[in-house]
Every structure is written in C-alpha cells, then in structure tokens.
Design brief:
Chain lengths: 272, 180
C-alpha cells in the first residue's frame, strides 16, 4: 500500500507509469538530499576543526563528540543520564496531561470558576518558569520532585488554557441535541465534550511532551547530579563543549522519537 | 431533529441511535430490540456498526430520525431536516421519513421553506408571517391517491392548486412588506 507502484493494476496507461516513476524519483531525491545535508554539515564541521579554521575548544568537532559518546557508553553514564531525564520527562508529562484534563473539565463544568480564574491562568502561563526553579529548590529540595514539578510548571498552564478553550468550542448544536434528548450537563461532558475532544487532547499531548522536557532540563540545570540538564551545565562550567553538543544530539536522536512514537501508537487506538 | 444530523463520529450508528435511551436511562432489552427493528425496517441494519462518515446523507438523516424515535416521543419536531441534502436525495428521504412517521402514528411538526415539500408531506400546512410570527393561513391537505410516491403526488391537480394557493399567500406577504 505504501508504494504506489506495488498496487498497480493490470491496465495502467503509459502516462500513468511515467507519472508514478516521476513521483517515486521525486521522493528518492528528497531523501537523498536530506541525507546529503547531514553528511555535508558534519563533514564540513570535522574538516573545519582539523584544518583549524575553527577553534575546537569553543566549537568541538564531530570526531571528539563520537569519542566522548563512546566513552559515555562504556562507563554507562550515557544510559543513566538519558534514562533519568527520560523517566522524569515521562512522569511530568503524564502528570501534566492528567492535571490539565482534570482542571479544564472542572473549569468547563463550573463556568463561573473559569471566569474567575481566567486572568490568573494567563498570568501563570506567561510567568518565566526558569525563574520559578530556584524557588522550587527552596520549597522542595534538590531532588527528583523538584525536577518533575519544574517540568509540570512549564507545560501545565498552557495546556489547561488550550484544553478549556477547545472544550468551549464544541458544537453548541451537539450540546442542544443532548439536552433535547433529556441529558444534563454531566451527560454533555461525558458524551460530547470529552469524546469529541480526543484529537485536541492528543495534539495537546504532543506539545506537552516537548514542554515537559524543557521544564525537566531547566530543573536539572539547578537541582540535579544526573541527567541531560546536569550534563549541559557541567559541560559549560568545565568548558566541555562535547557534553553540550552531545546533549542536543541525544535529545533530537533518541528522546523525541521515543516520546512521539508513544503518541503515534496511541493515536490509531482511538481512530480505527 | 435538526438541520444537520449531528451523528457523533466517535460512535457507531447503533451507539448513535441509542444515545437518547442512554441519556434517559431507559436502555432496556425491549428498547434495544425496538431500535434494532427500526434500523432493520429503514434499511440500516447492515450499517449499524459503521461510523457515520461511511454513510450517505440520506442514510444519516434516517439514522438521526431513528435516534429521535427510539425514546418514544409524543411529538416530533423536525427543524428543516432535509435542507442539507441535495434535491434528488431530498425527495426520496423526505418521502421515506414521512412514511416512517405515518406508520408510527405520531404527530410531527415539520419546519420547511420548500413549498412542494410542505404540500407533499403534510396533512395540514400552517403559514407563518414575518416577525412577529403569527399564523397567517391554515391549509388542510388531502389527496385522492396514496402518498407513497412523491412524483405521483406532484402530478395530481390538487398539488397544483395547493402550490398556487400557497405561493399566493406568501407573495402577498412580501408585497405588503415592500409597500410599508
């Protein structure tokens, strides 16, 4: 099914075949150039480092990064650091999802509460969360709790606002239908608002994963002895560019696909 | 019944038509069987486990009618239920739905802007004036032939008379408004 050529019926005209070939060639070209771009980038970087066009002390080099990564793999610090960040991110992501769903539902249910709290939510959402982190350390100590709360604090308010707005935009005629058939507000919530908002909730979760990760890294900057955020801070303090660079690569190469695949797996469960 | 069918995409046709029963907490075995019978009678039995998007516009309106009928209402209120359908489907579906309602012996109030729809389906046509709406004219409808075939009715002399009369009543109103 994925390749248009594989499901080709017997009677395909000359022009159709030509079109399909051109279509496939186009896709191959796109993938090729994507790959080429990566190779070119790292190749140039390595070349520039070896020829001393750039200062390796400030810019590092792909070779150094690979060596550093290898060393981290050997002493398992790669797995402990990535694992702890992944775990903290997942915990705060799940809590954000749960918490924002609960609060948004409550706000929809009690609309006067929503009116009262709306300005506070906007203010809390625009609060610089990194400024909150030192306070969290004082309140909760330096540990996993602080980091998870930091992760939650970055994502939760935006998520509540987003979900609540989405709930309010449900088709009023569908609600009218529920009421004419003899349902009450609770029925409207359970039979229209929540099931109708599944696409919204999932897209909201996608955003939350990214934000929870950012929050966890901020937390780790200040209150951790392990994790990717700790590696960044440690790396920048001892001028180990490799550590910082590696963190960015880990994040893009491992964390995002892992977390996003969770969403992609869960999505068809609702829509198939 | 509303202009759009509002079948919920996250429920199957069967789950959609029992919505009213769920809300009234009357989802008894007897009512379930009644709903299944309605689905079978109106040609939707094979589609009961399909999602609404897999059905045609006419089938969706029939499903919406079954959803309304399932709760045994005393009175049906149909607010321009066919306005979202194309004209050919509209003829067939409106004839079907009128037939269904006649068989169950329920009173139905149908709101429509379509003159021929009003005089082919109804036993009684009430013409409302512009705001403030008052009943301007009441017209009992009677045909010699069976109502089943929408095209046969449109070819009868009574149909022509009713149509002309209704047209006159409505155009009069417009001319009054233009005069003021």
């Amino acid at each position: 099914m994925n390749s248009p050529l594989s499901t080709q019926p017997e009677s395909v005209s000359e022009n159709q075949i030509r079109y399909l070939k051109a279509h496939r060639r186009h896709h191959h070209m796109v993938s090729l150039f994507r790959l080429l771009l990566v190779v070119l980038f790292f190749g140039l970087w390595e070349l520039a480092a070896r020829k001393e066009w750039i200062d390796v002390f400030f810019f590092s080099s792909p070779g150094d990064i690979v060596r550093y990564l290898y060393q981290m793999l050997i002493d398992y610090s790669f797995f402990t650091n990535t694992g702890i960040t992944l775990l903290e991110t997942i915990v705060s992501f799940l809590l954000v999802t749960l918490l924002s769903l609960l609060v948004a539902t409550l706000l929809w249910y009690v609309s006067s509460l929503a009116e009262i709290l709306e300005p506070y939510l906007v203010v809390l959402n625009s609060l610089p969360k990194s400024a909150l982190a030192p306070l969290l350390i004082v309140w909760l100590g330096t540990g996993t709790n602080t980091i998870i709360v930091a992760g939650i604090s970055v994502a939760v308010f935006g998520s509540i606002i987003n979900l609540y707005t989405g709930f309010c935009q449900s088709d009023p005629e569908m609600l009218k239908l529920i009421y004419t058939l003899g349902g009450n507000r609770r029925d409207a919530l359970l039979k229209v608002i929540l099931p109708g908002s599944v696409p919204l909730i999932l897209s909201n979760m996608k955003v939350n994963i990214g934000l929870a990760l950012v929050g966890v890294i901020i937390g780790e900057f200040l209150a951790a002895r392990r994790g990717l955020g700790y590696l960044i801070i440690y790396g920048s303090q001892v001028f180990k560019r490799n550590a910082e660079m590696i963190e960015m690569n880990i994040r893009t190469v491992i964390l995002y696909p892992t977390l996003l695949s969770y969403i992609h797996v869960s999505y068809p469960l609702y829509y198939n | 019944m509303l202009q759009r069918d509002h079948l919920f995409e996250w429920r199957t046709i069967y789950q959609n038509v029992i919505l009213g029963l769920e809300l009234n907490h009357t989802l008894t075995q007897q009512n379930r069987e009644y709903v299944l019978k309605l689905l079978a009678d109106y040609g939707l039995a094979a589609f009961k486990d399909k999602k609404p998007s897999e059905l045609s516009g006419g089938m969706r309106q029939r499903a919406a009618l079954i959803r309304t009928m399932a709760i045994h209402p005393d009175l049906l209120l149909l607010d321009e239920p066919f306005s979202a359908l194309d004209s050919q489907t509209r003829l067939n579906v409106s004839a079907d739905i009128a037939q269904i309602i006649r068989q169950t012996d329920k009173t139905a109030v149908l709101i429509t802007h379509d003159l021929s729809e009003a005089i082919t389906l109804a036993d009684r046509v009430l013409v409302l004036s512009k705001r403030p709406a008052i009943i301007k004219c009441e017209m009992p409808i009677h045909y010699e032939i069976d109502r089943h075939d929408p095209m046969a009715i449109r070819n009868t002399p009574e149909y022509q008379q009713y149509f002309n009369h209704l047209w006159e009543v409505l155009t009069n109103e417009q001319s009054v408004i233009h005069a003021t």
